[in-house]
Amino acid sequence: MIKSWMVIGGIALLLAIIGGSIVRPKGVQWFRRLRRPQWLTFEPLIPFIWIFVFACGVWSAVLVWEQDPGSSRTWALMAGYLLLELAILAYNPTMLIGQSLKLGTIVGAVGFVIGLILTIGVASVSSTAAWLLLPFLIWSPIGTYTTWAMLKLNPTEA
């Protein structure tokens, strides 16, 4: 029997792979040449932070699913998790293909709002699942602020 964590984790992983494949080397090269704030000393840790954030999101979704599998409310929350992941994964392609830090800042802010709404909806189903979304709610504004700070250092890259 296939476990819920396998399905939810598999979908999350598949979407991350597809999202990562959209990014082109030209956009990555553009991003690498941009100036960064002096305080951005943790940039090498960002991929690991996102892995942790995604793992917490998957675990949160599994807990919600297992509370009431297949109900319309659970499916609606699963759609919220999917929307949140798509918003998160849209950040890099949108910013790198558009070569626009402003677009990245907007996508980051929209993702945070989606995550906040999802967390509020999840809290009534499982407080643990809501707490597992906290790493995203903490990290997302940091990433969005970092992109905004880079925009101020690279005003021609709006």
UniProtKB/TrEMBL annotation:
<feature type="transmembrane region" description="Helical">
    <location>
        <begin position="103"/>
        <end position="123"/>
    </location>
</feature>
<keyword id="KW-0812">Transmembrane</keyword>
<feature type="transmembrane region" description="Helical">
    <location>
        <begin position="129"/>
        <end position="151"/>
    </location>
</feature>
<dbReference type="GO" id="GO:0033013">
    <property type="term" value="P:tetrapyrrole metabolic process"/>
</dbReference>
<dbReference type="InterPro" id="IPR038330">
    <property type="entry name" value="TspO/MBR-related_sf"/>
</dbReference>
<feature type="transmembrane region" description="Helical">
    <location>
        <begin position="6"/>
        <end position="23"/>
    </location>
</feature>
<protein>
    <submittedName>
        <fullName>TspO protein</fullName>
    </submittedName>
</protein>
<dbReference type="Pfam" id="PF03073">
    <property type="entry name" value="TspO_MBR"/>
</dbReference>
<comment type="similarity">
    <text>Belongs to the TspO/BZRP family.</text>
</comment>
<keyword id="KW-0472">Membrane</keyword>
<feature type="transmembrane region" description="Helical">
    <location>
        <begin position="74"/>
        <end position="91"/>
    </location>
</feature>
<keyword id="KW-1133">Transmembrane helix</keyword>
<dbReference type="GO" id="GO:0016020">
    <property type="term" value="C:membrane"/>
</dbReference>
<dbReference type="InterPro" id="IPR004307">
    <property type="entry name" value="TspO_MBR"/>
</dbReference>
<feature type="transmembrane region" description="Helical">
    <location>
        <begin position="44"/>
        <end position="62"/>
    </location>
</feature>
